[in-house]
Amino acid sequence: MRTRSASLAALVAAGVVLSPATALAAPTPTPSPGSTTVTKAGTSFLSATPIAAGQPVRVGASTGEYLYWSFTAGAGEIHEIDASVSPAEDRTGSSTWTVEVFDGLRRRQACTAGAQTPTADASVRSVALGCTLRRVRPWAEPWSVDPLPGTYYVRLAVVEVPERDLGLPIDVELRISATGDAGTAPEDGRLETPLVPPTNAGEVLEAVPTLAPAAEDDGWNLDLTGWLPEAGSRWIWTTAGGVLAAVAGVFGFALTRRPRVRTAVR
């Protein structure tokens, strides 16, 4: 009994000693940069609402709308998207929701964990969605779809819902957490240029060019250059072809005409 008690005490002591190390080794979410809650979402990639890791999102929307958010990811980070949708209580049937992540080239990124497309019955009050992205790489081959540093887009929408439930109000909560530090997994390369090259805008002219003043017309100058067709226009070729056809017709008629024979009148 004393031996078992001593062994149990030793195991408990070892657990107490190892607990802090295990807690330190576990990944911790990036703290929120502020207590500001985002209360809006975009309806397309171009109007996506930018959010930061750890920033809470609470949005009221309608069933059937596409909701977009954007966030910035650095090399070596792993991002986890957690979303919750509260459908209307008076809905008539089950609904299927989905959360998707796209990179700057609008390429859909794969999720390694999380309920990406759950289905909720009519009696369910809340639907939980999740997506854990792969670790962002500092570089990748052009043909691959590996996640690279840059801007990413989150899209939340319903994919299957009864038609009569479209337009019903919903409440959406979303949070993005980032774990890992940039440079924790060094590789033999890095991204030198942006994934999407910036668009170069045109140059602004400092002075607006002015046209030379037109010569005064006193009414006696007869300019026919504007009425004459160009040298390569179809009117020139049509006229020349008609003249040549007329000449050829006259010449052919002259060749085939029979001479008249005069008969003597007695």
TrEMBL record:
Transmembrane regions: 235-256
Species, as recorded: Micromonospora radicis
Keywords: Membrane, Signal, Transmembrane, Transmembrane helix
Domain of life the protein comes from: Bacteria
Tagged with keyword Membrane: yes
Name of this chain's protein: Peptidase
Signal peptide interval: 1-25
